[in-house]
């Protein structure tokens, strides 16, 4: 792995946490659609950090999600429940972004915030472990 990939992987990790912080701020302002959008992107960006290390790039969100499910869930790097969370975030983000009417309960949004934070922390460990192995 070259130095540029290492720098870009760290960039994606940082971007993931910024999206999570943005989700939390949106939640405080009762902007639940935006919260769900940012939660989805926080996971999406962390997957991209891993992809960067692998030297892989996808143009479509569906391809990134497919990679996540194959590598992280079917590959037993993460618990199956995390796959369900990411897949559901994808669906909710699509609905929130493109539906005329979107409603979600505050408690449910708060649950997703907590689960997403756990997910990206687990993913970050995997990404950093992979990064360290690639540097050796």
Topology:
Elements: H1 3-28, H2 32-54, H3 61-74, H4 80-98, H5 106-135
Helix pairs in contact: 1-2, 1-5, 2-4, 2-5, 3-4, 4-5
Strand content: under 5%
Q: Report the structural category.
A: mainly alpha
Mean pLDDT, nearest integer? 95
* Gross CATH architecture: Up-down Bundle
> What is the helix tally?
5
Give the % helix: over 70%
Question: What does the largest sheet look like?
Answer: none
The total strand number stands at 0
The CATH homologous superfamily is termed Nucleotidyltransferases  domain 2
Q: What's the structural domain tally?
A: 1
Query: Termini distance?
Result: 10 Å
In CATH, the topology is named Four Helix Bundle (Hemerythrin (Met), subunit A)
Report the CATH C-level class.
Mainly Alpha
Order of helices and strands: HHHHH
Oligomer: single chain
Poorly predicted regions are: none
């Amino acid at each position: 792995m070259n130095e540029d990939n290492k720098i870009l992987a760290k960039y994606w990790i940082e971007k993931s946490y910024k999206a999570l912080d943005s989700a939390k701020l949106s939640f405080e302002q009762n902007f639940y659609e935006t919260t769900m959008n940012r939660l989805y992107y926080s996971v999406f960006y962390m997957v991209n950090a891993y992809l960067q290390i692998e030297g892989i790039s996808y143009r479509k969100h569906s391809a990134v999600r497919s990679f996540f499910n194959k590598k992280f869930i079917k590959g037993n790097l993460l618990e199956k429940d995390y796959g369900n969370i990411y897949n559901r975030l994808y669906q909710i983000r699509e609905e929130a972004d493109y539906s005329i009417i979107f409603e979600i309960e505050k408690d449910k949004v708060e649950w997703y915030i907590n689960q997403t934070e756990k997910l990206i922390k687990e993913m970050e460990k995997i990404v950093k472990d992979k990064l360290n192995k690639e540097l050796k």
